[in-house]
Amino acid sequence: MAILDTRKEKSLPSTPRRMRAELFASSKTKSSLSSFSGHSPPATPPHTFSEAMMEENIDNAEVLIKKWDPNGSSYGKLFQENRKEAKEFVRCVKELRRAMHFLVSQHSSSGKLVKAQNLMHMAMARLEKEFYQILSANRQYLDPESVSSRSSHLSQSLSTDSEQEDGGCSDNEIQEAGESISKVERLSVLAMSDLRLIADCMVSSGYAKECVNIYKIIRKSIVDEGLYHLGIQQYSSSHISKMSSNVLEDQIKNWLNAVKIAVKTLFHGERFLCDHVFSASQTMREACFTVIAKEGATNLFRFPELVAKSKGSPEKMFRLMDLYEGISELWPEIESIFSYESVSAVRLQALSSLHKLCSSVQTLLSEFESSIHKNSSRTPILGGGIHPLTISVMDFVSSLGDYSDVLYDIIGDSAGSPARTPFPESYFESPPSASETPTSAVSARLAWIILVLLCKLDSKAELYNDIALSYLFLANNLQYVVEKVRSSFLKCLLGDNWVSKLDRKVKSYAANYKAMAWAKVFSCLPEILDPSLSPDSIKEHFRQFSAAFEEAYRKQTAYVVPDGKLRDEIKLSVAKLLVPMYREFYDTYLEVLSSEKNLEVMVRYSPDNLGNYLSDLFHGASMSRSSSSSSLSSNSRVPRCLN
Predict the structure, then answer these.
(1) Chain centre to alpha carbon of residue 326
(2) How many CA atoms does the CB half-sphere of 49 hold within 13 Å?
(3) What is the pTM of this model?
(4) C-alpha span between 392 and 401 (Å, rounded)
(5) Cys-Cys link to 385, which of 312, 512, 528, 560 (CB 3.0-4.6 A)?
(6) What are the structural domains of the chain?
(7) What's the chain's Rg over C-alpha atoms?
C-alpha cells in the first residue's frame, strides 16, 4: 500500500533553500574547541601518537575533505556517486577527530588545531548535506511501510553492518544480499547503513544537534503525511458531536482500518529506522522518535475516546466495541513501539480510550435493558404474532453474542452483571440447578436481558381479551426467542439446558392455548357414549358441536403462528384429540338420525372434514379469509355417506 504521496517526494528537492536554511543554519557556529575538549578521547591513548603523525592525518584529511567541500564549485553527492570514497571520507574525519583530541591535549595553541577545526567544520557541513540528501532521495525506500514490512530482513542484512568497524556495507556484501532480498530492500539497507554511518560520525564529532534536527524534520513530515493519507484528522469533541450518524460510522470504519496500518506499519517502521540510525545513543533515539511520532500517535488514539463521549443510541455500542477491540488487539505492539518514557502519553491515551469505551458500553447496555422495561406500547399484535420488541431485542442480543470476547473484557466478573440467577425459580416448573445456568458474567448478563424481555411480554399478553390468544402470543414470542438463540452464537453462551427449559415453556404455553381455545368444542361431545341417548339429545349435541366448531374455526383463522414447526405441532395436537373423539361420536349416533329430514343442518361436518378445516388455521386473517369462506360453503354439506 502506498501510504506516502509521491508529490511530497518531488516537492522536497524543489524547495531546498528554505529547508536547508532551517536545517543547516546552526552549522556555522557549532564547531569549536570545546566540542572536542568535552568528549572522551579515543580508546588509544593520545601519548602513543607523535605530533608528526597527527599532522600527516590532518594533511591527508585535508585533501579529501576539500575535494568534497559543499561550498566548492563541484557540488556532488558523495555517498551516491562514490561509496568507496564516502567510506574513506568518514575514516578521514575519524582520524581528523583523533588528531584534534591529541592537539587539544598537547598543543592547544597550535596553528594546526585551527586548520583541523576548519576542516572538521567543512566535513560536518558535507555530512549534513549528505544526511539530508539520503533522507530526501530515499523517501520511497525509507517509507515506514517498506521499512516495517521488511524489518526482519533488514535486521539480518544490517547485522553484518554493525559488526564492521566503519559501520558500512561493502559492495560485495550488497551484491550477495541481492540474491536473497529485493532491490527495494537492498536500497533500504544501503540508505539505512549510510545514515547510521553519518549519524555516528556527526554525533561523535560533536554535531549531534545538527544531525538530529535534520532527521526529525524530514521523518516527522513523512509520518504526518502518512497519517493524513490514512484519513487521520485532528479530532476534537465538537467535531465528533457535529457528525451525522452515517458520517461517524464511516469515520469509525476508516479509523479501524487506519489504526492497524498506523501501528503495525507507520510507527513500527519509524521506530525500527530511528533505532537503527541512532543505535549509538538511546537518548537520541528516544528524542527523535518522540518528536516524530508522539503528536500523531496521541491524536490517533484520542479518536475512540471522543467517540465514546459522544451521545448515541444503543446500536452505537457495537461500534464502540469495534474500537475497543481494535486497540486491545494492538496493545502489545503499542507497548513495544511506544516503550520510551517520553512517549508514555501515547500509551496513556490508548488506555484512557479503552477505559472510556468500556464505561460507555456498560452504560449503553444498562440503558438498553432499561428501555425494555420502559416499553409502553399498548396495542396487541394481531393474531398473537411476534411483537416488534421481541424481534428488536433478540436481534440486538444475538449481535451482542457475537461480541462475547470483547464483552467479557468489558463486563468481566464485575459490576454490570446481575447478582441474580438468570431466571427466577418460579419461571420454570422446577428451580434450575447450578449446572444448568450460564456461568460466565457475559452469559448471565445476556440471559438476564432475555428474561427482562420475557417478563415484558407477559405484561403484553395481558392486553388480549381472549385468554387463549394471550397464550398463543406467549408461545409464538418465546418460540422466536428459542429459535434465535439456537441459530446464533447465543446457544454456545447460554447452553443446551437453558434452551431446553425455554422449549418446555413454549410447549406449556401451546398446551394452555389448546385447552382454552377448544374447551367449548370438546364440551359439546358427551364424555361417555350412551347407546340409550335419545334422538333429540343426539341432535342437540350435533348442533352444539357444529356451532362451537364453526365459532372456534372462524376466530382462529385470524390467529397466526409464524414458526412452521410450532404451527404444525399445535394443529396436530388439536387434531389428534378432537378428530378421534368426534369420529367415535359420529359413528355411534349418525345412524340414529338417518331418517331425519334436513340432516345437513344438524350434522355439518364429517370427521374427515375436521382435518381439512384445521389445516387452514394459524396463517393469519389475510391468508385464511378466502379459504375459510369457501370451506364453510362447500364443505358444510351432508357427508357423502348420508346421500
Answers:
(1) 5
(2) 23
(3) 0.78
(4) 14
(5) 560
(6) 6-208 (no CATH), 245-372 (no CATH), 390-507 (no CATH), 519-642 (1.20.1280.170)
(7) 43
